[in-house]
Queue: 2 jobs
Job 1
Amino acid sequence: MTANTSKMMLVAIAAIAIIAGSVVATMQTSENQAFAQQVIPPSREKTISVTGMASTSVDPDLLNIQFGVETQAKTASEAIDSNNELMNQVVDAIKKQSITEDEMRTSSFSIYPVYDSITDPKTGIYIRSELTGYRVSNILSVKTEKLTIGGDVIDAAVQAGANRVDSVFFSLSPERQLAIQDDLIGKAVMNAKSKAELALEPLGQKIIGVKLVSLSDFGYPPPPIPYYSRADAGFEAKAAAPIFQSEQDVTTTANVVFLIGE
C-alpha cells in the first residue's frame, strides 16, 4: 500500500466519523425540540385556583352537659370538704339517670382566695384587701350517646347540690364526623371543577390538568347553650327541663389549582 493510498483511507475514515457525529447530534436536537414542545415550563403555565365546598346536615350522636359545684368557707380545707360532699351527691344522682363513670370527666377543679375590699367608713376611700375565705369550684363534664335524658340529668344534678350548669349542647363523635367529611371530599372537588369550567368558558379556555389539590375539613357545631348558671339563685327544680337536639352542619372544602389552555 502506497503512502498516498493510506492518506486517502484516513481522510475517508475521518469524514465518516464527522458525518456520523453530525447525524447523532441532529437526532438529539430533534428529540430535545420535540420534548420541549410537549412540556410547558412552570414559568409559562396558565392556572386557575378554585375553592370547592360541600356540606350536609346530620343528626347528632352525642349529648354534652357541663355543670358543677362551687363552695366557699373560711379555710381551704373546709371549702374542699364541703365541695366534695356535694359533688359526691351529684355524681350519685346522675348515675341513677343511667350515666356511667366512663361518660363523666372532671373538666376543671380550682381553689382560689376570696378578698373583701376595706374602705374608710367616712371617706369611702379604699384602704386594703382582707382575706375572707376560699372558694372551691369543681366542674364535671358529661358526654353521652343517650340524647333524650339531658333534662333528667340536669335536674337530678341540681337537686343533689349542683349550683352551676354552664352549657348543654349536641355534637358529633369524631369518628362519625370524619366519615361524613370523607364522603364530602369528592363533592367538594367536583364543585371546584364546576366553578372553574364556568369561569373559563367565556374566556375560551378549558381545564387540561391539575397542578395542586389541598383539603380543609371543618364543621360548624352550634355554640354551647347556656342553661342556668346558679341553682341557688331562685331556681327550683320541678319537672325535667326540655332539651331539644338540633342538626349538625358538616362542611368539607377543596382548593384545586387547575392547569388551563385553549
Note: Residues 3-38 form the longest helix (36 residues).
Job 2
Amino acid sequence: MKIVVAGLGIIGGSMAKALSKYTDHHICGVNRSPQPLRAALACGAVDEIGSTDSLADADVLILGIYPEAAVQFVRENAGKIRKGCIVADTSGIKSSIFPALEALAKENGFVFVSCHPMAGKEKNGFEVSDADLFCGASCILLPGSAPQKAVDTFAGLMRQIGFGKIVYSTPEEHDRMIAFTSQLPHAVACAYVMSPCCPKHGGFSAGSYRDVSRVANINAELWSELFISNRTSLLAEMDLFIEHITQIRDAVDKGSRQELAGLLHKGKLIKEELGE
C-alpha cells in the first residue's frame, strides 16, 4: 500500500519509522516544515517527501497532527483524498473531532477509522521518534461506521508495527477513560512540581518523585487543547481526585491515625486487586 503520514512529530514520525522497519509498504511523508521531512528521508523513515497532492493515490492516510488541526487538514484536502482511502487520526481526544471527520468521510467517499496509540515520551518532535515506540503498547481503535474490512486492515497494520493489544471503543468511552488514565496524571504532575521544594529535590528523592513528576515534562500547547476539549470528563475526574486528596488531608490535619490508615489501606487494596 501507499501510506501517507501527515505530521512527523513523535507519533507521526514513529509511525513512519515503524512502518518502514516492519512492513514493505511505500511510506510518503507530509509535513508543514521541511526539516523533519529531510530528516525522515535521510534516515529511511519515508520513501519519499510528498505534498497534499500525494493523497490522490494513497491507500492509507495517518494524521500525526493536533486534533483541531487534523480536522482542518482533512476539510481543506478532502477533495484530494482518494475514494476508499483509510484516514486515521491519532488524537488524544475524540468526541470533539470524531463527528466532523466521520461526516467528511461520508461526504467525500473515504473511510474514517480513528485511533489513539497509547505510547509516547516526555519529549516531542521527529528527533525523538522511535520505530519501536509502539512495541507491546495498546492501540485504541474507534471504528464508528467504517466497514469491517477497513477496520481489520488498519488493525492489522497496527499489529504489524508492534502494538500488542487492540482496544475497540467509542468517542465517549475513550474520552471518559483517557481523562482518568492520562489527562489527570499530567495535571497532577504539573501541580506537584509547582511546589517550592521541587528545585531542591536532589539528594532527597528517589522513585516516588520520579514516578509522580515524570509527565510534567509536557507539551503545554497540545495538552491545553486536549484538556479543554475534554473538559467535562476531565473536570469530573479532577473533582473526584480533589475529594479524595481532601479526605486524606483532613485526616492528617486532625491527627486521626486510624482514619488516615483506613484511607491509605483502601488505596492499597484497590491497587493490589488490579494486580498491576
Note: The longest helix spans residues 231-254.
